[in-house]
Design goal:
Belongs to the G-protein coupled receptor 1 family. Helix content is about 75%, strand content about 5%. By secondary structure, the protein is an all-alpha fold.
Length: about 300
């Protein structure tokens, strides 16, 4: 990736140039990031410490929580620091690293959400074969393929972008290094790269979203013959998952399934899937999931009883 260019650093325009708005955004996004870290780490701790949650569904939920923590950390710390910085600068290789990590964990989230939908399909539509289909080795293979697929996607995406030359333009009209804003700075024809980006990012998002919709369609049809209690429990689990899917996939498809054009709305949409969705995921999965809530109560009870023993 040694490309002749005159750029050693890039400058972000950020979400706003107004000092008052930047201070407000600093406090707001610092709070959001703290909630993301605490919420997702709490899910990881709860699932790992409670043997009753050592099932395929919660194995993939742990993967999702880890991905959300890492995914938001690819952009949020730099964005928060820039709100109180006079100059929002990132080095050339810092930009490369940020784009790679952002797309790596973002694509991993897409694949993990898709695997989670398959897990729910198997549990509801194939209950007698579920333990055979989603055995431990199969879960590890599915998770590994998700991470390996994300690695390949991110490498291709980053390589396609930074193999282009950058002459003198270095101001990125965004708050992090994403493909479309960076491609606008390249001093070369980016038509082919734009098409490959759509194929790489846009079609992955759209394809996985269509697979998810198909799996939920099968689930809804299969629930017609179940008891009211079974329908309620299945719809509660799948409803929370589909909410997460919608919040994440719709903005991704809007951003990446189009030619390399940028709109004023892009920054707000990006905030939604880089910060808001990872923050909402723990809330959605805990507030709508009795198993997780009960496990958290047991974890808290163990902590309280341990403190009482230490005092005694």
């Amino acid at each position: 990736m040694e490309v002749a260019n005159n750029v050693t650093e890039f400058i972000f325009l950020g979400l706003s140039q107004d000092p008052g708005m930047q201070l407000m955004f600093f406090a707001l996004f610092l709070l959001f990031y703290a909630v993301i870290l605490m919420g997702n780490l709490l899910i990881l701790l709860t699932v790992s410490s409670d043997p009753r949650l050592h099932t395929p569904m919660y194995f993939f939920l742990s993967n999702l929580s880890f991905v959300d923590t890492a995914y938001s950390s690819a952009t949020a710390p730099k964005m928060i620091a820039d709100f109180v910085s006079e100059k929002k600068v990132i080095s050339y290789w810092g930009c490369v690293t940020q784009m790679f990590t952002f797309h790596f964990f973002g694509c991993a989230e897409i694949f993990v959400l898709t695997v989670m939908a398959f897990d729910r399909y198997a549990a509801i539509c194939q209950p007698l074969r579920y333990t055979t289909i989603m055995r431990a080795n199969a879960c590890i293979v599915l998770a590994s393929l998700s991470w390996l697929g994300a690695l390949g996607h991110s490498f291709v995406q980053t390589f396609l972008t930074f193999q282009l030359p950058f002459c003198n333009a270095r101001v990125i009209d965004h708050y992090f290094c994403d493909v479309h804003p960076v491609l606008k700075l390249a001093c070369a024809d980016t038509t082919l790269v734009n098409m490959l980006v759509i194929a790489n990012s846009g079609l992955i998002s759209l394809g996985c979203f269509l697979i998810l919709l198909a799996s939920y369609t099968f689930i809804l049809f299969s629930l017609r013959k179940r008891s009211a209690e079974s329908r309620r429990k299945a719809l509660s689990t799948c409803g929370s998952h589909f909410t997460v899917v919608t919040f994440f996939f719709v903005p991704c498809i809007f951003i990446y399934l189009r030619p390399s054009t940028t709109f004023p709305l892009d920054k707000a949409v990006s905030v939604f899937y880089t910060t808001i969705t990872p923050m909402l995921n723990p809330l959605i999965y805990t507030l709508r999931n009795e198993d997780v809530k009960n496990a958290m109560k047991r974890l808290w009870s163990c902590k309280v009883s341990l403190k009482e023993k230490q005092k005694g």
